Amino acid sequence: MSDFPIVDTDPGVTRQVLADHPDLMVVAFRFGEIGAEGKLHHHPHVQSTFVKSGKFRFSVDGQETEYSAGDSFVIPSNATHGCVCLEEGTLIDCFTPRRDDFL
User: Which CATH superfamily is domain 7-98 in?
Assistant: First the structure.
């Protein structure tokens, strides 16, 4: 169990840091309702996303792709990205380096 708090990020979405190190951070994003969004954004960190459960439509630099449980992919540094929840679920994101703004 993580000692980090669960934080509300967007309507229907929570975030919890699971593990961190200056070079790497693992974070769970839980989407509790269909239509919940991870709004479009970008950051200098390379991000890897694993769909633990649910189904999501991701936009990465304008290209839309649907992912479901068991899928994974990488988002390059500074790529504009976001997602819409199509089926309630959880994303496990890894960031390198660590997202200090999440601490």
Answer: Jelly Rolls (2.60.120.10)
